[in-house]
């Protein structure tokens, strides 16, 4: 569940920048959202690898 918490925290940390970009047109917030989404992608990939490794070692 620790990994799930990391994903949730990352998404929640981006909420303000999403609002600033989409509602107020703040371009700098868009840059922060893009970086955060890249971090989310990398975290998701790490989790996928961990799950696959765990699955393979238990089989």
Report on this structure.
It is built from 2 helices and no strands. It is mainly α. The chain has helices at 2-24, 27-58. The longest helix has 32 residues, at 27-58. It is elongated, with a radius of gyration of 15 Å. 2% of the residues are buried. The protein has one domain (2-58).
Supply the key terms.
59 residues; mainly alpha; elongated
Short recap of the structure:
The protein has 59 residues and is mostly helical. Helix content is 93%, strand content 0%.
Order of helices and strands: HH
Mean pLDDT: 96
Rg, nearest Å: 15 Å
Helix content: over 70%
Structural class: mainly alpha
Instruction: Please tell me the total number of domains.
Output: 1
- Report the portion of residues in β strands: under 5%
Span of the ends, CA to CA: 22 Å
Count of alpha/pi helices: 2
Question: Which runs of at least 5 residues are low in confidence (pLDDT < 50)?
Answer: none
Largest sheet descriptor: none
Number of strands: 0
Which term fits the overall shape? Answer: elongated
Show the helix and strand layout.
Layout: H1 2-24, H2 27-58
Helix pairs in contact: 1-2
């Amino acid at each position: 569940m620790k990994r799930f918490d990391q994903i949730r925290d990352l998404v929640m940390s981006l909420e303000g920048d999403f609002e600033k970009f989409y509602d107020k047109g703040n371009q700098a917030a868009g840059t922060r959202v893009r970086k955060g989404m890249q971090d989310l992608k990398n975290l998701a990939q790490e989790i996928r690898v961990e799950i696959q490794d765990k699955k393979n070692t238990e089989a």
